[in-house]
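In response to the reviewer comment on reproducibility (Comment 2.3), we provide here a single inverse folding case reported in full, input and output, so that an independent group could reproduce the run without further information from us. The C-alpha cells appear first.
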C-alpha cells in the first residue's frame, strides 16, 4: 500500500519520535510485529527491545523501547513506552558500563536472597537492548 503512516513514540517524560514512516517494526510481547499503512487496528503490550522504522525517505531509524503499549491504527502507530531513546542519543560507553553493572548485579542476586533477582534480570535485559541498539548500524 502506498503512502506513509504516522509514528509517535512517547514516554511519561517526553516525545521521542514524531515522524512519518513507510514501515514500523516493534517488539511486541508475543513477538515482533510489522505495520504498513492501512494496517488493521490493534492494541498490544511491548517488551524491551528495538523499534525500527523506515522514515519517509526510506532511511532506517532505530529506537530503544523498554516496555509499554502500542496502538496500531490504519494511519498511525502510537508507542507509549516506559522509556525510549533514539539510537543516536545512546552513549555507547555508558550503555556498556550499565551492562557490566547489570551483569554484576545479577550474579550477586543469584548468591544473595536479599537482592531481587527479577529486578536484576530486567535491568540486564534493558542494558543488553540498549547496547544492541547503540551498536546498530548508523542510522537512527
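Designed residues, in position order:
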Amino acid at each position: 500500500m502506498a503512502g506513509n503512516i504516522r509514528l509517535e513514540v512517547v514516554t511519561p517524560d517526553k516525545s521521542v519520535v514524531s515522524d512519518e514512516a513507510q514501515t514500523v517494526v516493534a517488539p511486541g510481547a508475543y513477538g515482533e510485529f510489522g505495520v504498513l499503512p492501512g494496517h488493521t487496528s490493534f492494541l498490544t503490550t511491548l517488551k524491551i527491545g528495538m523499534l525500527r522504522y523506515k522514515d519517509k525517505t526510506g532511511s532506517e531509524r532505530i529506537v530503544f523501547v523498554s516496555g509499554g503499549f502500542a496502538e496500531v491504527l490504519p494511519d498511525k502507530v502510537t508507542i507509549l513506552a516506559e522509556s525510549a531513546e533514539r539510537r543516536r542519543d545512546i552513549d555507547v560507553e555508558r550503555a556498556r558500563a550499565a551492562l557490566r553493572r547489570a551483569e554484576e548485579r545479577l550474579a550477586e542476586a543469584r548468591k544473595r536472597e536479599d537482592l531481587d533477582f527479577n529486578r536484576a534480570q530486567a535491568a540486564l535485559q534493558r542494558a543488553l537492548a540498549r547496547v544492541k541498539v547503540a551498536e546498530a548500524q548508523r542510522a537512527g
